[in-house]
Description:
The structure holds 2 protein chains of 2 kinds. Chain A has 2 domains: 116 residues, Glutathione S-transferase Yfyf (Class Pi), Chain A, domain 2 (Up-down Bundle), CATH 1.20.1050.140; 149 residues, Rossmann fold (3-Layer(aba) Sandwich).
Amino acid sequence: MTDETLRFAYYPGCSLNSTAKEYDLSTRAVARAIGVELVEVPDWNCCGASSAHTVDPFLAFALPARVLVQAEEMGLDVLAPCAACYGRLVAARAEAARHPDYARRLEKATGRRFRGTARILNVLELLGDERVAAAVAGAVTRPLEGLKVAPYYGCLLVRPPKLTRFDDPERPVTMDRVLQAIGATPVDHPFQTECCGASLGISRTDLVVELAGRIVGAAKLAGAEAVAVTCPLCQTNLDSRQEAAAARLGEGLGLPVYYITQLVGLALGVPPARLGLRRHLVDGLGLLRQKKLA
Amino acid sequence: MKRVGVFLCWCGSNIAATVDVGKVAERVRLLPGVVHVEENKYTCSEPGQASIIKAIKEHGLERVVVAACSPRLHEPTFRRTLETAGLNPYFLEMANVREHCSWVHPDREKATDKAFDLVRMAVARVLKNEPLARGSITIEKRALVLGGGIAGIQAALDIADAGHEVILVEREPTIGGRMAQLDKTFPTLDCSSCILTPKMVDAAKHPKITLYTYSELEKVEGYIGNFHVTVRKRARSVDETLCTGCGLCQTKCPTKVPSEFDVGTGLRKAIYTPFPQAVPNKPVIDRENCTYYKTGKCRVCERVCEAKAIRFDQEDVLVEERVGAIVVATGFDLFDCSVYGEYGYGLYPDVIDALQFERLINASGPTEGKIKRPSDHEIPRSVAFVLCVGSRDEQKGVSYCSRACCMYSVKHATQYMDKVKDGRAYVFYMDIRTPGKAYEEFYKRSSVEYGVQFIRGRPSKIYQKGDKLIVKAEDTLLGRPVEAEVEMVVLAPAMVPKRDAARTAQTLGVSYDGFGFLNEAHPKLRPVETNTAGIYLAGVCQGPKDIPDTVAQASAAGAKVAALFSRDEMATEPMIARVDEALCSGCLWCKPVCPYKAIEARTVTEKVHGRTVSREVASVNAGLCQGCGACTVACRDGAMNLQGFTNEQVITAVDELLAGLRPACS
């Protein structure tokens, strides 16, 4: 890392405290390994995804805006690993510009002013940052040679492009570069930004099984041994629906679904136990052991 | 005070329904200078004009105001009327009480008041009118046609057939343009080459046409009737006068590069003619790819050339020509389909664009007309044709419709079904637009007789699955998602302006729109003229169109040029800018604001206090000035004035408006 330490306000969100604990563990571990300081946003709240914006537009703004206000007060840019949190934060920034009265109402309710000065980053934006990428490349101790990984960006990271302004919405490349940097082989497949079914997981499981099956199926057909994701909901869907999808497709799937930070952490020499690799439904350790990577 | 006659037009009910013309007449009668007021149902009609002439004579009128429609419509009409009556035609003012009043106001009383105000201002202004006389300029009866596609060829032939010399300039090594790349043309399916190549030969052989291929327009100076153009003849590296076009050099050249003419579906050599029927059939050396130019070794072409025509040391030549008119027919480019990442153009070899498909089905193309897909050279058993790739898409492409893609895609699907009898063809469309003669019937036949399947929906994604391509879309007629498994996809890209269209426009001094298409002078009534006199448009450089429309426009441009050349001199409009040299300080702020490059500095010599001094002043070129008035606004000294629309006249009219109704006196 350069002399100047990179510091970010870290907003884990609810998922990273529960189902996606391994995303939280691995993100912090990677940051530590490359000397990026993550300062957790104090007294953070839920971003509102994915129910607030279907109920009340102001609430949908106010919840993420309050998180942003905290970060602004810390004088730091925000790192939001969860794609849904990230989506809500960038949406709040845009809503503030569209509704000047929102900031006033928020100030009235919380006594704090929203300025919209903090930059909002997702994990790939952080890892794609020139300085961070150089630090990662320099710190790789266990390149993931021979591991064929299908990058899966999901829908929220790149859309709507006007808000996220991150990578190409149809053909993103950031994760491919990160995978290359850690010695893995990115596998091109057609469904990198297709929806996994997201919030329909409970209400329309049949749909999610079909969508998740298609994504993992395409990755497998393209020759991938694993999938890398950046979103807790994607991870849950792709991980938990594989068995049902395989039954429907009549072919085995069984691709472990890793958070990109888990793979980066592994390559940086973080012990597998501290990356939460046991927390997946489709065995995450077996493949790595077989490849002598864990 | 001059004797003014005012003629108030009803324009049927167009004006009279909203404006109380009688009331306006009553009030106008009281204005100073007005000696005669008359209403007429249609002032522009023959009896209407006759009554103006009669009134001029009977009442000794010296100035005339016509309160009617826009001067853009009938000012020339009434000027002729005044001329017939023996008055200077510029002693006319028009008050636009139709477009500026009756058509846009619902309130009769207020509209009547406003009509009176407009007439009042016109009366005040007409009293300040000075007699103006038209000038004349000589016309050089030679034309420059820029671009040797079907538009340029047609315009050149029409002008040449009218007996005038034409210089036809083409950037590529051959004329023929886009049409030469096409296989068949809709809706008659006649072969593009069979109807084009004879015209190419006609153009080359025409005694009145001089052909400059592999050449570009460098500079344009002058004005209508008197343009000086400089053309850069790029070095072919081949002596055209010696070359016999035997083609041996092309056979022996060891360097192969992707062919631009085949849009990358085939290869050409470093010394090449783009296609066998090229006109002129003389090759050029592509110096960027030629081994000799890159390494100093090879010279195979020189060794095999029996005519000794290879000239490695040839240089560009600048040719200067004088012409009286210019036809711009510079054509178009195609939208880059790789902008749509979701379609995989450039990623999946079997996703191609429509021009590449034209080369694949063309008998003289790289596959000799067999539809073989690029990846494995197999004949695809199914093909999807995707319309509007770039067109009608403000997010990723352009807002406009490219007009020809529906029809050529229908043609492609029909041709495919004709060649691959058991094949399947899908056309994904938003709307099918068939507004030409026999177009709708052609479209219908494609589905009824050939079994082409039309799916209304813009694909959201195209991806590869094994050796197949999956096209995903919503069928918006069924209201459900569909997926088509096909073996090849053909995208119909938007037609976009030539990449250097803006530069061409700037070189010529013509205006262009936000996309880069050149602007016509009027979208309906002056579709082939530009706002710069003497420069005409033909073909897609003006906007997307198909071959019939292009040829029609090219012939129209040719007719305009022939009409211009039918006279030895042409009258110039006197309503142009004039410099009062005594007031001009020579700051030349007027020069950069002039859109027509009509203002130049001029040195005048005068005696001041007995000493002879020289100083710079602005000078207006009467041939170039279009009378827009931009310079008069920029002039700090008030030295620049637009004749017939002087600063004094404008101020008088405004004063009149502000003064309100004056008491009756004369």
